[in-house]
Design brief:
about 200 residues; Rossmann fold; seven-stranded mixed sheet; 6 helices; about 20% strand; binds 5-O-phosphono-beta-D-ribofuranosylamine
């Protein structure tokens, strides 16, 4: 890698507010990454508009156009490869990925953001489950992706309090503020390990 920035491929399925946090971070001269491409499995994901506004190339690969996970993932690999990504960032990408796809990019080359303090609350509905369990703290985790869903080495976590009157929606908003801090921090940390010293 000759440059002082690594290439990111950001995979989304929806709003892309975490993508926006990465776009904003990458706008800094001293941030050690640039977004080479944003890929969505949904053509109407608002994150695609965010990417286009920032002048970032976009790709849409719908799982509905492919007969099974393997052809879907092969299409993603074909679409991303020309952008030479050094790190794949899952940012609200709502498809489960096979070990083959994860390993294709090399060891520790894919990261994800999850809206809970892993290993607690893997999977969906994290905020409601934390409220139902009377927890007083919630948060988010950025972690390397391993074949088992929502596992893999933790890069960073941020905590927020759960208030007695919280709903899943109010808690999600509080956690999301921290996600937008955690994801760029994690990318910066990983990128520095990938760049030549
Ligand atoms: C975030 O809560 C993230 O933790 C989860 O999916 C959501 C994506 O939100 N994996 P956004 O599309 O980044 O706004």
């Amino acid at each position: 890698m000759a440059s002082k920035k690594i290439n990111l491929a950001v995979l989304i399925s929806g709003s892309g507010s975490n993508l926006q946090a990465l776009i904003d971070a990458c706008a800094r001269d001293d941030f050690p990454a640039r977004i080479a491409v944003v890929l969505s499995n949904k053509g109407d994901a608002f994150g695609l508009t965010r990417a286009q506004k920032a002048g970032i190339p976009t790709e849409v690969i719908s799982h509905k156009d492919h007969d099974g996970r393997e052809p879907f993932e092969a299409a993603i690999i074909k679409a991303l490869t020309p952008y030479a990504p050094d790190l794949i960032c899952l940012a609200g990408f709502m498809r489960i990925l096979t070990p083959h796809f994860i390993n294709h990019w090399g060891a520790q080359r894919m990261i994800n953001i999850h809206p809970s303090l892993l290993p607690d609350y893997k999977g969906l509905n994290t905020h409601q489950r934390a409220i139902d369990d009377d927890k007083d703290t919630a948060g988010c985790t950025v972690h390397f992706v391993a074949p088992e869903v929502d596992s893999g080495e933790i890069i960073t976590q941020k905590q927020v309090p759960i208030h007695p009157d919280d709903t899943a929606e109010t808690l999600a908003k509080r956690v999301l503020v921290q996600e937008h801090i955690a994801y760029p921090e994690a990318v910066e940390r990983v990128a520095k390990t990938l760049l030549p010293q």
